[in-house]
Specification:
By secondary structure, the protein is an alpha+beta fold. 36% of the residues lie in helices and 26% in strands. A 6-stranded antiparallel barrel has the order 1-10-14-12-11-15. Strands 2-9-7-4 form a 4-stranded antiparallel beta sheet, with no helix packed on it. Strands 6-5-3-8 form a 4-stranded antiparallel beta sheet. α2 packs antiparallel against α3. The longest helix is centred in the middle third of the chain and has 41 residues.
């Protein structure tokens, strides 16, 4: 009589044990599939100030980079600079195809010769008509000439003067066309707008350059003295002042601190741009950009575009 109840009781206990064992196996499988949390390859920098504001930043050329492109769409015939090359203001960077303009220049220069010949003819005609008028006027006995002859000669001189003026204007226009074409040809040589170092060359001879290209043909900047553009969260914006000291740490180097010199605060809060590409980075945050000057120490090599951790502290 007691066999069935005992079976039910002990069977329930066995099922419970089996269930616990199965749950343990499931949890082991879940834990095995989880990615282990590994420590960062480089220890993050310690805060150099007891109180202050932390920000992310990026290295830029002093006075910012210059993205250089062609004035018009054209074929590149020669890239005259290389990365790391130092250039002076006015140095040639790119040569664009100017053969069409060179052909126009030849035509305009030939037009100058034609217009010069027409001017010489017009001046000769003017001199001829003026001489004939002067002869009529020099006759002592005016009864020997008619007023119609005198009036016609006078009108001929007037027409000759107008033709001479027209020829002079055509000659001046031809000279202007030559000057204009030479200026357009000179524009086909893209030159450096200021002193600096070539940071990127993104175009080669034979490629087609256009002002609408998203990627600039050449990026020009300064590498001896850099600046840091720090993005301060708008919640901390009111805590930043010009007299606050600041230090920067390169990503991957948490031991070396670089002293920063305050340059300016951009008076415009902007949406934050993603720097790390991490999925958990807040890109909906608005930031205040603070610019600092950074002098590259002797023996150190810093690169434009490197990310830095910026700490702005209290004195």
């Amino acid at each position: 009589m007691n066999i069935f109840p005992n079976f039910v009781r002990y069977g329930s206990i066995a099922l419970a044990v089996v269930g616990v064992w199965q749950m343990t196996q499931v949890m082991d499988v879940i834990h095995a599939q989880e990615t282990p949390i590994t420590p960062p390859p480089v220890k993050p920098p310690e805060k150099p100030f007891a109180k202050g504001v932390a920000a992310t930043g990026i290295l830029e050329s002093v006075d910012e980079n210059v993205s250089i492109g062609p004035p018009i769409p054209a074929l590149v015939t020669e890239a005259m600079v290389k990365v790391w090359q130092k250039v002076k203001k006015g140095d040639a960077l790119l040569q664009l195809d100017d053969r069409e303009l060179q052909a126009q220049l030849i035509n305009h220069e030939a037009t100058i010769a034609v217009n010069q010949a027409n001017l010489d003819i017009a001046l000769a005609q003017l001199a001829k008509q003026q001489d004939m008028l002067d002869r009529l006027k020099s006759v002592t006995d005016q009864r020997a000439i008619t007023q119609d002859d005198l009036r016609n000669r006078t009108n001929d001189v007037t027409v000759a003067k107008a033709q001479s003026a027209q020829a002079q204007a055509q000659l001046a226009a031809a000279h202007a066309a030559v000057k204009q074409t030479k200026l357009l040809i000179d524009r086909m040589t893209v030159r450096a707008p200021r002193d600096g170092t070539i940071l990127q060359v993104n175009i080669r001879a034979g490629e087609y350059a256009s002002p609408q290209n998203k990627q600039p043909a050449i990026i020009l900047g300064e590498v001896d003295t850099l600046q840091v553009r720090a993005d301060v969260d708008e919640q901390n914006a009111m805590s930043v002042r010009a007299d606050m000291p600041a230090k920067a740490y390169l990503k991957g180097d948490s031991l070396t601190a670089y002293e920063l010199a305050f340059e300016r605060i951009d008076p415009f809060v902007i949406p934050k741009q993603s720097l790390t590409g991490a999925s958990n980075e807040r890109v909906d945050t608005r930031v205040l950009q603070v610019i600092y000057r950074l002098k590259v120490p002797a023996g150190k090599t810093l690169y434009v575009g490197q990310q830095v951790d910026v700490f702005i502290g209290e004195k």
